[in-house]
Amino acid sequence: MIIGVPKEIKNNENRVALTPAGAIELTKRGHEVYVQATAGLGSGFPDADYEAAGAHILPTIEAVYAKAEMIVKVKEPIEPEYELIREGQLLFTYFHFASYEPLTNAMIKSKAVCLAYETVEMPDRSLPLLIPMSEVAGRMSIQEGAKFLEKPMGGRGVLLGGVPGVEPGRVLILGGGVVGTQAAKMAAGLGAQVTIMDISLNRLRHLSDIMPANVNTVYSNEFNIRRHMKEADLIVGAVLIPGAKAPHLITRDMLKEMKPGTVLVDVAVDQGGCIETCTPTTHEAPTFIIDDVVHYCVANMPGAVPYTSTIALTNATLPYAIQLADKGWKQACADNEPLKLGLNVVDGKVVYKGVADAFGLDYTPVDAML
Question: Which parts of the sequence belong to the Alanine dehydrogenase/pyridine nucleotide transhydrogenase NAD(H)-binding domain (predicted)?
């Protein structure tokens, strides 16, 4: 198969979808890999490394899309890429369709095969291609939140870990999944007082067992959220419903009950966000303030640490990319149920129910397309 790796063009997105190590694994199986010039530079991988791995370098994004049967990316295609995508071409990337209708409509129009990293789902409901970036984003949420709590950045001027004689900052984490767990570990490690909320009692029991003493677990409901947010210095939104829009757990009216300078980090923003007032921002301008509350809503948080993120992502996606290249997407998805769940849009039809429901579109069962 001919595999194309374009350079990401989303604002301040420095990741690349394939490392040179990944290129070796594909080329040694007889596949052709074409990488856009400088695509890996932001992650620390120069063109020469890809050429040494057996890949070919193409000068432009147009050339990569024109050549490839399968496009492997990090982030969803943005508007300048829409016209480059052709009928029957396989796109393997993060899409987060349910949060952005124009992208969904563009991919329906293209009649491409859109296989989304974020909805590849194992029998235990874990999301193997989302986990590594969720781990990065969860840890970063505390790193960024701590920075924006500083007074010059608009925050309350709170040091999360405190110092002897001064109590530490308080962190509220909404969601006890991968993002929430990693955020809690980081916040606890800094010495903050941490409260993590979830609607699964089994998950809360597990977290209670594994977390240090400065992490408390609380059942998530509106009453408890309103009670704890009033004392929080940093609130992390870490709620995900695979393939669908995240629910709004923090609403506009709640902001007035928070302390001025509170920082909100909505890690779910690329899936619609679980904080009503959050809209996507970029690393170039990551925050805005509403009602004296700082909102950090960067939709590609791991893009700020591209070396770590790119290696972690390739570790997870490469086995699936190899299956798609070796067998073709139809056979690979027929043989691998988790991979089949990654199919969202195929030949102009929406085959993932969460996406169809988000926009009131017709839904076609995925098996009908195989």
Answer: 149-297
